[in-house]
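Quick one: structure for this chain?
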Amino acid sequence: MSERPHVVVIGGGLAGITTALDCAQAGARVTLLEVRRRLGGAAYSFEREGLEMDNGQHVFLRCCTAYRALLRRLGSDHLVSVQERLSIPVLKPGSRPVKLTRGRLPAPLQLAGALARYPHLSPLARLGAGRAAAALMRLDLSDPELEGITMGDWLARHGQGEEAVAALWDLIALPTLNIPAAQASLALGAFVIRTALLEDAAAGDIGFHVGTLAEIVGRPAERALRAAQVDVRLGWAVQEIRRGEEGFEVHARAGGEVVRGDAAVVAVGHTRAAGLLEGLLGERVGRLADLGSSPIVNLHVLYDREVCSVGFAAGVGTPVQYLFDRSAAAGAPAGCQYLAVSLSAAEQEMGMSVQELRERYLPALEDVLPRARRARVESFLVTREHAATFRSAPGVAVLRLGARTEVPGLVLAGAWTDTGWPATLEGAVLSGHTAARTALAQCGARREVASAV
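Got it. Here's what it folds into:
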């Protein structure tokens, strides 16, 4: 019997975790290298001022079956919840809160009633939105021409003006694509809307992390990996990947340590991957820089009393995009309420100081949450993810690399790879499954050749 293949996974985010678990389950020896002292990648928690906060609000949908299956595998699925029926509270300054709730009709009619009553669009705009949704259903998502069109231009050609885009379409585009609909790839935007809302009535029901990301992803993943006999090495910074006669050598940034394996899976963000892959893939790596990036900024606001009566809400006509009540998960003091405000495509906010953000967003929160006007702000913190996702603009599809590279045994994973999904939790997990299958197949082929020789 030949020796088990050894797969080295670089990166401990969702893609790397999934790859390592799959490879170990298939019988391979696995070493996972992560530069941070924790697992989870871009989905992590931190402690500040006595609260355990998530760096961002990573929601998912009922149709995100790969991500939900990973949580069951980690034993943390009891710490998430999925809505029984899609319902989005919408807040607008000077208006009463409304809800976009799906009805009992089959897709794509499940939101027809909610749209017909939606007060933030004129009756004519509501009718136009329904017609645009019907036109989206008729698109051929395999048509490469969709990649050269912005979602905004397509919507404009189908009668959707700035009012409709801001009040409706951006409610979907911003949190899923991390880019406004006006700038987004039509191909990705149409995929998200059809997958979540137009093909299966229940697919778009929103899933929430009831616990913190550390409780749901980071710590359970480390337990699961070690139970699977994966050699998890935290705080291990990779300097270089070299290809040798016997496979790959992964060199540490400090100490001269080297890890050797039959396959190397690079499961880090695309900007970091470009630096690690340049010596092996050459000019092809230049495509990764063209993927660009979109930032996300999160505001963490602790009030001395309850100011919001819903668990989450979307904003219209306000800079507040989405807000979440994270009081219980973070361990907020009794009587206080901790709200996390998630700002996608936050190029402007990235350049603002904490004080500038405070001066802009606290009044904005008071405009949509009148009770906040009488509350005292106990704490106001900001977290920033400069390169949270790749930029989901037209032309991005041809820049996303597949798991398999021209170097046998060198495999790519991550939400930025060619998963068909935008940069989401689901896409990251799907990429990990693909990377594991690819690495194992290539390890097997190499060993068969070696045995024959």
